[in-house]
């Protein structure tokens, strides 16, 4: 059985990897010849009704598909070892493949109907994957994820109904000449809000850390290139329509606040997977904000580079959690780089890429984005939040490295720590190579001419200043000798507000549910289990029971009972006669 499952895993890995390579070749051909292919496949034709499936292939969709297929192939190969004790591994892999298929359908769709199919497929399969380990926490996380994404699904459905005014759902035809149309502006607002739900921007942020209840390979896939990037990709496709809208300015503010909020919350968190999830939320805020400034190619560039090192980061976290006997608290780790050097190497390089250390993948996109922000005519609040959030990234990353790899040995056991799971290491080294190379490779590929950005010295060095400051703060906070700073960080009321993502999970769960559930409980108690029972089933049973008890006394054939009832009847008859006379 085990050999059979291993062969299935390898088979799917091989197929996805080959498809990824083919997509890469096609993408090079398309980008060199500046090609766009629009395919229409007529599925059914009956009288005047025809159902047509549209597919859009250009360099962007092919490149994104290549990244999705590469990461999913590596994740399936990694799952072969990570999920080896799972009895239903084939079911898990089928769910992952369904997830990937939904994402690909979303990527290649120029049509709102097929976008909805991919979009809703992602939401449904993500629910199945989040509740994969069946317990109460997973169920709550799954419901929060599904219901948050359901808002986006409803908005896409409303977009479909509004687009009936144009006679076709192929949005690609209307982007150029329908900019100033009132109906198209309503559609645009709905598209932005749908993208905000999928990419977890404020006020829909709380589902993303909750989705960490899923198995770690799923987290690696979801947080790098599939579910959370669907909203960003949709806005990149619709960007021409949205670029002059006022609502985009609101999106800019919300996305920057998301980035800032996630950066702060990550510094208070001790759950390894949640820290990485909050870093994803921070990077999504960065992508959305640069998109709302009108740079869709930069957002796409960062989306792709981020996918590589974030998938690697989750894989490293998965290996460490496995070896730590499923302990996710970073306070129980420390000095593990001595025991698992190769995993620690992958973790460090992916963390450095996340921080934007020069010449790794993240540097090429993050540095360009921040320089374009400096170059833009923005107000001080936006500028300040951008750079503070960049510093916070360095802050929580160095804190994570200090707690896990450098600080004193703090483990409960050592016997489980080994670095010889070659299946996991092979998949991690594939992504390690991409985390180093993909930034420069994509910057040469996407931007056909080099960006030359001239800024004053201090503005040019601003990224390095805030990163250095964030790094120092991360070192001081995680170094346990400095108690005063730790106490300041843990000031109770402030820390509650900051660490609980500005009370967003409470607002989106208890805040929305409490009154409805409380009312439902009272309704159940008073009506269903109260008066309706008295006047229906329970009441009738009581009456019949009392009657049956009363009649059972007669059926005992006791002389006293019969004599007593005879006297009662005589008295009753006499009383009636007296009344009549």
Summarize the structure.
Helix content is 73%, strand content 3%. By secondary structure, the chain is mainly alpha-helical. It has a domain at 536-580.
Describe it.
The chain crosses the membrane at residues 9-31, 51-77, 89-108, 114-133, 154-176, 182-200, 220-240, 246-268, 275-295, 307-324, 336-364, 384-406, 427-447, 459-477, 497-517, 561-580. Residues 109-389 form the NADH:quinone oxidoreductase/Mrp antiporter transmembrane domain. This is NADH-ubiquinone oxidoreductase chain 5. Belongs to the complex I subunit 5 family. One of its GO terms (biological process) is electron transport coupled proton transport. It is a single chain. With 581 residues, the chain is mainly alpha-helical. The protein has a domain at 536-580. 73% of the residues lie in helices and 3% in strands. It contains 24 helices and two strands. It has helices at 2-33, 59-82, 89-107, 112-130, 136-162, 182-198, 207-210, 216-222, 229-237, 239-242, 247-268, 272-292, 296-323, 341-355, 361-375, 380-406, 422-446, 457-460, 462-478, 483-489, 492-499, 504-534, 537-554, 559-580; strands at residues 37-46, 49-57. It has a two-stranded antiparallel ribbon with strand order 1-2. Helix 9 (229-237) packs antiparallel against helix 13 (296-323) and helix 12 (272-292) packs antiparallel against helix 16 (380-406). The radius of gyration is 31 Å and the shape is globular. The chain starts with a helix and ends with a helix.
């Amino acid at each position: 059985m085990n050999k059979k499952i291993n062969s299935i895993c390898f088979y799917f890995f091989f197929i996805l990897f080959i498809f990824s390579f083919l997509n890469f070749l096609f993408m090079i051909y398309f980008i060199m010849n500046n090609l766009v292919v629009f395919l229409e496949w007529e599925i059914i034709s009956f009288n005047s009704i025809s159902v047509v499936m549209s597919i859009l292939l250009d360099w962007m969709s092919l490149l994104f598909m290549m990244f999705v297929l590469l990461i999913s192939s590596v994740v399936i190969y990694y799952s072969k070892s990570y999920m080896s004790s799972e009895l239903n591994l084939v079911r898990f892999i089928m769910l992952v493949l369904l997830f990937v298929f939904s994402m690909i359908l979303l990527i290649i769709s120029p049509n709102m109907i097929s976008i909805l199919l991919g979009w809703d497929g992602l939401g449904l399969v993500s629910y199945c994957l989040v509740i994969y380990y069946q317990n109460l926490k997973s169920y709550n996380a799954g419901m929060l994820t599904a219901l948050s994404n359901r808002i986006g699904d409803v908005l896409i459905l409303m977009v479909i109904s509004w687009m009936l005014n144009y006679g076709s759902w192929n949005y690609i035809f209307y982007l150029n000449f329908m900019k100033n149309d009132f109906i198209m502006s309503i559609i645009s607002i709905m598209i932005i809000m749908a993208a905000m739900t999928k990419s977890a921007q404020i006020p829909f942020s709380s589902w993303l850390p909750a989705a960490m209840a899923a198995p770690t390979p799923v987290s690696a896939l979801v947080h790098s290139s599939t579910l959370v990037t669907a909203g960003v990709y949709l806005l990149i496709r619709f960007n021409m329509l949205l670029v002059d809208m006022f609502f985009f300015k609101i999106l800019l503010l919300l996305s920057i606040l998301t980035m800032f909020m996630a950066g702060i919350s990550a510094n208070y968190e001790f759950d390894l997977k949640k820290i990485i999830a909050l870093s994803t939320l921070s990077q999504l805020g960065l992508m959305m904000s640069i998109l709302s400034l009108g740079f869709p190619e930069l957002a796409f560039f960062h989306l792709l580079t981020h996918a590589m090192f974030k998938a690697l980061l989750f894989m490293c976290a998965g290996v460490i959690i496995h070896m730590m006997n499923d302990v996710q608290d970073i306070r129980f780790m420390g000095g593990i780089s001595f025991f698992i050097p190769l995993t620690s190497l992958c973790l460090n390089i992916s963390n450095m890429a996340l921080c934007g250390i020069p010449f790794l993948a993240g540097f090429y996109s993050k540095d360009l984005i921040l320089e374009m922000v400096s170059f833009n005519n923005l107000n001080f609040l936006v500028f300040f939040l951008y750079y503070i959030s960049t510093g916070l990234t360095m802050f929580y990353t160095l804190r994570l490295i200090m707690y896990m790899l450098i600080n004193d040995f703090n483990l409960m056991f050592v016997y489980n720590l080994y670095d010889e799971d070659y299946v996991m290491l092979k998949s991690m080294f594939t992504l390690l190579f991409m985390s180093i190379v993909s930034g420069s490779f994509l910057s040469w590929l996407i931007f056909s001419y080099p960006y030359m950005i001239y800024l004053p010295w201090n503005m040019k060095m601003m990224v390095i200043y805030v990163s250095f400051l964030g790094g120092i703060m991360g070192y001081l906070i995680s170094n346990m000798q400095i108690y005063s700073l730790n106490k300041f960080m843990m000031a109770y009321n402030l820390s509650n507000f900051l660490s609980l993502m500005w009370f967003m999970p409470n607002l989106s769960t208890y805040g929305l549910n409490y009154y409805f559930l409380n009312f439902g409980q009272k309704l159940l108690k008073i009506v269903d289990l109260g008066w309706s029972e008295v006047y229906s089933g329970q009441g009738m049973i009581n009456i019949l029971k009392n009657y049956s008890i009363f009649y059972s006394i007669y059926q005992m054939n006791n002389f006293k009972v019969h004599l007593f009832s005879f006297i009662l009847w005589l008295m009753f008859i006499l009383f009636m006669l007296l009344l009549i006379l």
